[in-house]
Amino acid sequence: MTKQEMLNLLNSCPIVAILRGITPSEVVDVCQALADNGIKFAEITMNSPEAAKSIKLASEHFTSDEICIGAGTVLTPEHVEAVAAAGGQYIISPNCNPAVIRRTKELGLLSCPGVFTPSEAFTALEAGADVLKLFPAGRLAPEYIKDLKAVVPAEFIATGAVNADNIKDYLKLAIGAGIGSALYKPGMSSQDVSKTAELIQSQI
Prior knowledge:
This protein is an alpha/beta fold. The protein has nine helices and nine strands. The strands form two sheets. The chain has a seven-stranded parallel sheet with strand order 3-2-1-9-8-7-6. A two-stranded parallel ribbon has the order 4-5. Helix 2 (24-36) links the parallel strand 1 (15-19) and strand 2. It is globular, with a radius of gyration of 15 Å. The relative contact order is 0.16. The mean pLDDT is 96.
């Protein structure tokens, strides 16, 4: 997947589903529920049980036309290597680590590091980041993204306390929104995930 393909998919559906705590036994059913509701990105966090196994199972089961599988909470270059070996397509981090960004690009994956300040944003872009994750976004007024974009030449995914109540405001300025516990919590059934996905979609 190229950067432009990622941006095109976010334009069609701007939700990145954060699957923190998901297990290999449920990952396919949950991703199917997301895909059935038009969500194009599933982020399996590396602090989930057997995360690499879940990424591999989902990557093998779904095509990019159905849902794109990547990893979140990626903190080290070794994490990046594990995601690439499992078939993940993109790397999302809560922080700006140039070593993680560079390894991501070396392995041909898309890079979406977490930033909070202009300095972090420019550091991430200089290291090769494709899209920036503003984190934590939900504690700030959405207009903060406008201020950043006035000087930072990048698209942002707003993440952290973004939910059905405020997503519309963030999407006026960000190309996407990462949705975690408002969409998926560990142990939720695929039916419940489908309901929460439908609710959030209705607010876009």
